[in-house]
Amino acid sequence: MAKKILEVRNLRTYFHTFKGTVKAVDDVSFDINEGEILGVVGESGGGKSVTGFSVIRLIEEPGKIETGEIIYNGENLMKKSENQMNKVRGKDISMIFQDPMTSLNPVYTIGKQIEEVLLLHEKDLTKSQRKQKCIELLKSVGISNPESRMKSYPHQFSGGMRQRVVIATALAASPKLIIADEPTTALDVTIQAQILKLMQNLVEEHGCALMLITHDLAVISEIADRINVMYCGKIIETGNTKDIIKEYKHPYTEGLINSIPDLDKDKKKLESISGIVPNMFDLPEGCNFSPRCRYCKQICKEEEPELQQVGQSHYIACHFPLKGGEK
Amino acid sequence: MKTEAQTINNIGTKNSKWKLFLKSEFFYNYKRSVLAIIGSIIIISVILIAIFGPLFTIQDPYNMSEIELNNAYTPPAWIEGGESTFILGTDQQGRDMFSAIVYGSRVSLVIGIVSTLLSSVLGIALGIISGYFGGKVDALIMRIADVMLSFPTMLIALFVMSVLGRGVVNILITLTIVGWVKFARTVRGEVLSVKKQEYIEATKVIGLPNLKIILKHVFPNVLTSIIVLVTMQVGSNILTEATLSFLGLGVPITRPSLGMLCSNGFDVLYSGMWWVTIFPGLYIMLIVFGINLLGDFLRDELNPKLK
Amino acid sequence: MFQYIIKRIFQLVLVLFLVSVLIFAFTSVMGNPVYLMVREDATEEEIKVVEEYLGLDKPIYVQYGVFIRNALQGDFGMSYMYHQSALGLIMERFPATLEIVLLAMFLAITIGIPLGVFSGAYSKKLFSKIVMTLSIAGISLPSFWIGMVMIILFSLTLGVLPVSGRGEMGTFLGIETSLATIDGLKHVILPAITLAIGNIAQIVRLTRGGMQESIRQDYVKFARAKGVPTRKVLFGHALKNTLIPVVTVFGLQLGSLIAFTTITETIFAWPGMGKLLIDAINSADRPIIAAYILFVAVMFVFINFVVDILYTIIDPRIDLNQ
């Protein structure tokens, strides 16, 4: 069995606002193996991003990690001080954000922003070594003329280019895990595929694991090894990519898969999941998905389903799991 | 469910608006903001004291016949030599400081509030004119605004007062002249942005667009900014008036404002009569502090940029 | 850049023209200086002589023309009170004012910015609330009152600092200043603090507001995700992005302080230009008032120019030619 690089146990991250408490992440547990690509999917507001930010403990007021263990390489990150966390962030675990237009600081050059990571985490490098490394990093993410581009400011780059710079920054200190929060959502469709391919190649090259957060199941099915499906702050189905795509057992996963446009089949119309994500302040009784579920029975409205094993590494939280691929 | 629907039906529209306000995020935050509540309490107390205070003072400080010179130089009651009649002591003419402060606060408050109303009305009017007509009118008004902004408020006020001479009306004129710019800029900006919108463009068949329609859209949008500006302006106008009066270019000596009282105290500061200047100044600070506490809260709450 | 400088100069000329008209108009309607200069029992003949001497007998537009022609040569006429060149008097007093202003601005930056940064970054903490409350108190205080409290506290009660005057002067780098001697510093400290308090409060509030906005930005969060220590995130990443409004206000404050130290100088009998101004106003000394206002106008245009240049250094996205 592959070595686990990250184990998250019973993570609960709540937001306390004036309207009440939002359980953005509610009792979530999952693992990531070394060198693995884990996809996290779900509609927006499902707690995917908050899970990602919780892992490196970047949750800000009014949010708070209530309980849980985040074990990285055998160490519980929840027990670390803010200073110790700063040695983990960027060094062991780094992040890629959704919007490349805003994730780079407008008043510093590209070179300076990449170099900052090296200055913090690779202290024995000399100035010229750092420069060399920056150039290599920029080259590896496909930026031509890296030497001159290093002196440019973010506003002189396009969105796709900026996201490449962000990726280079995330890779700079050779982390063991990268958390990418919707890294392609804000980009042009034509660029999305390029960036994904680039990320896939780079994590492979560096032997680093990737937690890819997205609302796009189609994207994830292409490159992920395993998939977590999240709904209303909970993991409702998890398994290998093949299990999820071909043998999905949760009605919500079914809905997500059916809403992927399929060019091969000549479908008349795109299916969608009826209804909307429930109000996070006022979740339904029983199963959170019950109001939108077409298989909903009485028990679903009363009792919340537990996560149960249905395959070798395939778990699902549903009272009435579908039979593989059933429609 | 049924009963709830009934209750909602039973409440009149006016009442439900009030209820809506009580349930709003604004009111929720207000209740939780200690500073905003303190600010409100200060403002309400200060206004009540200004209105009803004279019922409790021992003398009318403007009426020279009520003042006796042999009471002069009495320190505050809790200090040796103080008398319980004169809680905050007396000045060099024997005037009771407490009475003087109560009456002085009336002058300060009236000037602060009236001048703010005048400058907001002038500013809003000039802002509408500037934004609506555009072109040369706009350029002229905005250039004047630029010139105004490139000088410290106090310097302009000092200059205008030195031309007009002291007096309450002249202070009001001066504060109006220095205070309209912020209002004009805010309103002008909004008029311009509303003018650009399509439905206004559509109504503009010939000539200028419909002023009525523009104003209907402008006011709801600038209302919150104006509320904040007005609140803050009252405070800063009280300070400006106090400073002018301190320099001897403010209200007439016969009806001293709080700033005037401070100025009066400065003359006897070195003879150790600190109370003549400290208490009126402290009261100015309290008033402006209360206003700014509330104004700050309003700005944080009503400024969507920070939300 | 060249285009920008041309634009600025054009602006300067326009502002100065508007200001000069306003000043001329205002000073013309201000109290007639003739009566301040002649004896109380002066004859009509004598008054006429003085009027002619001052050029007040000519039509108003001629007076304005003469006023502009002379002003362009730095000649605003002789002060009625001092019988010296008005501009010369201002320049003579300028260093004393600059001294307290620079010290006050130094205090405002070194105290105001760190307080603003921390209270903006941790706006929910008790510390931030205390700073915020104090800063509101700071802008609510009349400056003359601060000065008087200082005098009562440090001079009359504790007796540690002198109350008025400029103190002993020393020479530092060839400049005569009271900042160079102990006695001079003792004299300058109270006026400088009096001037500084309101400005500290304003800089705190401004920095705080900017920080509250900028720490929400993705690039600040991204910097944290890179493992940048908190202090560096705040001062390196967040603060630099909030400096534009701070620099603007700083420039305006610097100008305002130089232009209006009247209160502080009155209270501490500081021999600067603020004291000169109020004396001039009280005796309707038109040449000084006119020279003073135009001096301030030129200074503000210059400060704005420097502030604009600073913008381009702080934020690479700003292009002055746009």
Explain the overall architecture.
The complex is a heterotrimer of chains A (about 325), B (about 300) and C (about 325). Chain A has helices spanning about 50-55, 80-90, 100-105, 110-120, 125-140, 145-150, 160-170, 190-205, 215-225, 240-245, 250-260, and strands at about 5-15, 20-35, 35-40, 65-70, 75, 95, 175-180, 210-215, 225-230, 235-240, 310, 315. Chain A contains 11 helices and 12 strands. Chain A has about 325 residues and is an alpha/beta fold. The longest helix of chain A has 18 residues, at about 190-205. Chain A has one domain: Rossmann fold (3-Layer(aba) Sandwich). Chain A has an 8-stranded mixed β-sheet, sandwiched between helices. In chain B, helix 4 (about 35-50) crosses helix 12. Residues about 1-10 of chain B have low confidence and may be disordered. The model of chain C has no long low-confidence stretch (mean pLDDT about 85). Chain C is an all-alpha fold and about 325 residues long. Chain C has helices spanning about 1-30, 35, 45-55, 60-70, 85-120, 125-140, 145-155, 180-215, 220-225, 230-260, 260-270, 275-280, 285-315, and strands at about 170, 175. The chains are: A alpha/beta (about 325), B mainly alpha (about 300), C mainly alpha (about 325). Chains B and C meet through helix 6, helix 7, helix 10, helix 11 and helix 12 of B and helix 1, helix 6, helix 7, helix 8 and helix 10 of C.
Please name the two chains that share the biggest interface, counting residues whose Cβ lies under 8 Å from a Cβ on the partner chain: B-C, 46 and 49 residues
Mean residue pLDDT of chain A: 87
* Number of continuous helical runs of chain C: 13
Profile the largest sheet of chain A. 8 strands, mixed
Q: What is the typical, i.e. mean, pLDDT of chain C?
A: 83
Radius of gyration of chain A: 21 Å
Shape of chain A: globular
Unreliable segments of 5+ consecutive residues of chain A: none
What structural class is derived from the secondary structure elements of chain C? mainly alpha
Give the tally of β-strands of chain A: 12
> How many β-strand runs of chain C?
2
Q: What's the helix-strand series of chain C? A: HHHHHHHEEHHHHHH
Shape of chain C: globular
Distance between the termini of chain C: 11 Å
Proper CATH architecture of chain A: 3-Layer(aba) Sandwich
Largest sheet features of chain C: 2 strands, antiparallel
Briefly note the structural class of the backbone of chain A.
alpha/beta
Strand content of chain A: 15-25%
Put simply, the count of helices of chain A is: 11
Please give the oligomerization state of what you see. heterotrimer
How many angstroms separate the termini of chain A?
A: 34 Å
